[in-house]
Amino acid sequence: MVSDTTAPGRADKRELLQTVTFGQRVAEEEIESLESYFVETDQWRRILAGDIDVVFGPKGSGKSAIYFLLLARENELFDRGIILTAAENPRGTPAFRDLVEDPPTSEGEFRALWKLYLLSLVGTQFREYEVTTPGSQRLVRELEAAGLLDETASLSGTIKSVLHYVRRWLMPASIEGGIQIDPTTGMPVGMVGKITLAEHSREQRTAGFISADQLFGIADEALGQQGLKLWLVLDRLDVAFAETRELEQNALRALFRVYVDNLGLENVCLKIFLRDDLWKRITEAGFREASHITRDITIQWNDQALMNLIIRRVLQNDALCQYYDVDQETVLASADAQEELFYRMFPDQVEPGLRRPATFKWMLTRTQDGFGRTAPRELIHLLEAVRTAQILTIEQGEELPPGEVLFSTAGVKSGLPEVSRVRLEQTLYAEYPELKARMEALDGGKTDQSVASLARLWRVNEHTARSVAQKLIEIGFFEQRADSFWVPFLYRDALNMVQGSAEIE
């Protein structure tokens, strides 16, 4: 350890801090470096092995990181006979975003859209990977005849083509009254596409009609004949359908119904990454298919896993490794060594006192939501905000942290307001605008509220206040304690809140 007398000076510490990075809090912004940060947990190994189809987790818990790492293993997976297909744009504008202006009008229409869209992706991959069994060739022919297979189309372009087909041929409400219906087949005369949703009578099959489920079965058999599997992977669904709750609910409920419809397939696999609060939202009114979702996991982080996450990011900085004279493998092999390195960088406590938590625990409690969960996203953001704040304190001439410690208690505290503001504005306000005014009304107030104090604050009766408070509990803004509602540290700085009980006030 560096002694106080030999500790680096102001310029040295500032220069070191300016070269340090803890990474980006959003996976899309650090794709190139994710591989070096990532811990191959048992959950990850089960996903990579194909044992998991649905990955749940809170926002910022690392779902997208796993998704991107899965895409990065595309060649490795293909060596195992798995064709990996992203069914949503990994970055940039979501492929489904264009549906906002003219969305499917019902869950049934969405279900048809999902089935034909996924079949179109299967057909595209059959072409690219030269899957040439009789069944695969038939699938490609059927999709081509329906105008659903265009090699040059983007994902959003494919979605538009599919939605046009669904509305023109599959949904009864969209068939114009002037179109002549064949009394034998029950289908429009002169129909170009013959892919439908329902199973058919013998006459309809003779006429060449085929259902989407039959095509999935044909695709599954074709892949099996060539010793292949095809994974259709979906992430960013919270962004794709975020405009309205009705659109989101129709889209996601329909997607999971399609997933359940395809559970009997062995070689065509749908892989879905979804926030657990969205899953709760689409199932709270009842969703019979939920009992069939069994190949799933929920991402969870304990204290040691979060410490490991921090240290892995620290060790990617060569300057820090040299400064503390540590070896990456040695540190990562020992939980004690990881904690020791953390406290060589940070002060023992942020707030002094026998009952006050150690710095790492302080960071975790300050970034927890109302469910008591710390997401990696907020923790990484806090570390970056602390680094920025510490550089500022050095530039302003404040006292340096002692010895080899890089971050002072003031620097650590100064990073939290920015994390609080971003979390409140970009997550809660952005996603729950109908509750924004209720949260803003707490600005400058006490952190512990009762039903009575909330009713006074919001100028509503106590029944309404309790109902609104329950909604704020459900989004993680409030933590319920006995019969009071407690605001987590994560949101206090952004709302200038004061520790204490509003009832006592």
Question: Mind explaining what this structure looks like?
Answer:
The protein is an alpha/beta fold and 505 residues long. The protein has three domains: 1-27 and 302-431, no CATH class; 53-294, no CATH class; 435-505, Winged helix-like DNA-binding domain superfamily/Winged helix DNA-binding domain (Arc Repressor Mutant, subunit A), CATH 1.10.10. 50% of the residues lie in helices and 9% in strands. The protein has 24 helices and eleven strands. The strands form three sheets. Strands 2-5-6-1-7 form a five-stranded parallel beta sheet, with helices on both faces. Strands 9-10-8-11 form a four-stranded mixed beta sheet, covered by helices on one side. Strands 3-4 form a two-stranded parallel sheet. Helix 9 links the parallel strand 3 and strand 4 (210-211). The longest helix has 23 residues, at 409-431. The chain is globular. The two termini are 49 Å apart. Residues 1-5, 173-181 and 189-193 have low confidence and may be disordered.
